[in-house]
Design goal:
single chain, 203 residues, mainly alpha, 50s Ribosomal Protein L17, Chain: A, 3-stranded antiparallel beta sheet, 54% helix, elongated
């Protein structure tokens, strides 16, 4: 079992591998671009980005941590001044690996290992990370205001209906139409008998 054997051995002993990575990272910070095999670039990339993060801190303890790996003081000074200023607004991804084909002779895959250019850093420096989706608890906490708004709308509708009913009850009742008065030329009919029958009774 390969417990505690993470990473690439690169066909070297532990001490040889550590010095190899130290020299690769020193050359990267000095020239800002080196050509090496893909396996070595992938192995050196996490360590190089960790050292840039130390340089962004800028304190004495961080400088001493970097000096344990990068032994050139001029390179360390460049790392803590110009390179740290370049990446101060970038949250990560300070380096990149570009495939360059295969090496003549042993056919090893080659790559260009370089720091991110200033143009790319300036374009993406002001962007913020995406916020994670809210959890179910947050969604449940947001539900009561929605229910409260629905209850307020229902109460408003009920009040409007009550006002309409009250307005209908208070409306004036129309008076019944007045009886038509007889005209002057027409005789008034009183009682139930016609005028001819009244004349006969008088005779």
């Amino acid at each position: 079992m390969r417990h505690k054997k993470k990473g690439r051995s690169l066909n070297r002993t532990r001490s040889h591998r550590n010095w190899l990575l130290s020299n690769l990272i020193t050359s990267l910070f000095h020239h800002e671009r080196i050509r090496t095999t893909t396996a070595k670039a992938k192995e050196a990339r996490p360590l190089a980005e960790k050292l840039i993060t130390f340089a962004k801190r800028g304190d004495l303890h961080a400088r001493r941590r970097v000096l344990k790996i990068v032994r050139d003081k001029d390179v360390v000074a460049k790392l803590f001044t110009s390179l740290s200023d370049r990446f101060k607004d970038r949250p990560g991804g300070y380096t990149r690996i570009i495939r360059m084909g295969y090496r003549n002779g042993d056919n090893a895959p080659m790559a260009m290992f370089e720091l991110m250019p200033e143009e790319v850093v300036k374009k993406s420096g002001g962007k913020k990370r995406r916020s994670r989706r809210p959890k179910k608890k947050a969604e449940a906490a947001e539900q009561p205001p929605v229910e409260q708004a629905a209850a307020e709308e229902a109460a408003a509708e009920a009040a409007a209906v009550e006002e309409a009913q009250a307005a209908g009850e208070q409306a004036p009742v129309e008076a019944p139409a007045a009886e038509e008065e007889p005209s002057a030329g027409e005789p008034e009919l009183s009682g139930g008998e016609p005028p001819e029958e009244e004349q006969k009774k008088e005779d």
